[in-house]
Each structure stands twice: as C-alpha cells, then as structure tokens.
Design brief:
Blueprint: H1 4-7, H2 15-20, E1 23-30, E2 43-53, E3 58-67, E4 72-83, E5 86-91, E6 94-95, E7 98-103, E8 106-109, E9 112-116, E10 125-136, E11 141-150, E12 153-164
Antiparallel strand pairs: 1-2, 1-12, 2-3, 3-4, 4-5, 5-7, 6-9, 7-8, 8-10, 9-10, 10-11, 11-12
Length: 169
C-alpha cells in the first residue's frame, strides 16, 4: 500500500507510477466577461480519471465529469508513451489527438480540438483547447488549467484541482 510519503515521489517524468494512480477532484468552468450575461456564475463539477494498463507503454484512460446539475460525461481514451518525455493521447471526441509533454512539475498538452455537447444545441461543437497541468508534490495536488475557444473566441477556462485517490485496502 502506498503512503502519502511514497506519493510525494510521484513525478510526471515517471509516467508509469504517476498515471497508474487514479485521480479525483473538483473544478469549475468560468466564462469570459463577454459571456457572463448567459453564464452569470462559474459552473462546478467533479472529475475522476483512472487507467487500465495494457502494456508498459500503452494504457486506457477512463474519465468521468459530473456537472453540478447531475449531468455526467464519460470518456475513454488511449495513451501511448512515445518518448521519455512524451505521451500520445487520443479520444473518440478529440480530433487528431494530442501529445502530453512531461516535466518534473507537471505536463502540457499540445493544443487540441474536441467535440463538446452543449445542451440545448442539437449538435456538438468543435472547441479548441490549451491545457497545462502543474504538479505540487508537497500538497499532492495536480492543477489542470484548460483554456477554451470557439471559432477563435475565448469561451472560458476550466480549473480542476486533482489529488491521487488512495488505493483500496
């Protein structure tokens, strides 16, 4: 069983150990000022992510996002370690996939495009995303900041604060 002190050694530069952890936390989507007439306050959500390892270099990623109104979005993707500091990531709704660039203090995604359902619209929209994660080992917190754009216009940003899930005993 891993203890908190064992987890302080977690580093994105050791992807097998770092990404083998399940992660959970809370987040919010915040609209830019020009959209605040429609979205008067941040929208809160919870987020969890877990992995299923297929080989030492390939794994499945399972994400769940639950909005404050109860709407749940599940996604599964494929991750492949392609270099010591790079992971290739693809999901069905992520057009063309993306690369994760690993650093000791976190990781950044190459810009990516994703299909997003936005009720009550009948069709998903293609959203551009710039995504970076900062790892704070002392607090055991991974802060994921995602900046979103539609047709080149900023439509908000999401900030998610994640912690490793203790293993089941």
């Amino acid at each position: 069983m891993q203890t908190r002190s064992d987890r302080s050694e977690l580093s994105p530069l050791r992807p097998r150990e770092f990404f083998a952890q399940s992660w959970s936390g809370e987040g919010e989507w915040i609209a830019p000022s020009w959209l605040r007439r429609l979205a008067r306050r941040p929208r809160w959500f919870s987020f969890t992510t877990a992995t299923t390892w297929l080989t030492d270099d390939v794994w499945l990623v399972h994400d769940a996002l639950i909005w404050e109104n109860g709407r749940t979005e599940y996604r599964s993707g494929m991750a492949r370690l392609t270099a010591e500091n790079r992971i290739r990531l693809s999901y069905d709704d992520m057009l063309g996939g993306t690369d994760l660039w690993l650093r000791a203090d976190g990781f950044a995604f190459s810009p990516y495009r994703i299909l997003v359902a936005m009720p009550p619209l009948p069709l998903p929209l293609v959203i551009g995303a710039h995504d970076a994660c900062e790892w704070d080992a002392p607090s055991q917190e991974l802060i994921d900041t995602i900046r979103l754009r539609l047709f080149g216009l900023p439509i908000g940003h999401m900030v998610i604060r994640l912690h490793p899930v203790p293993p089941a005993s």
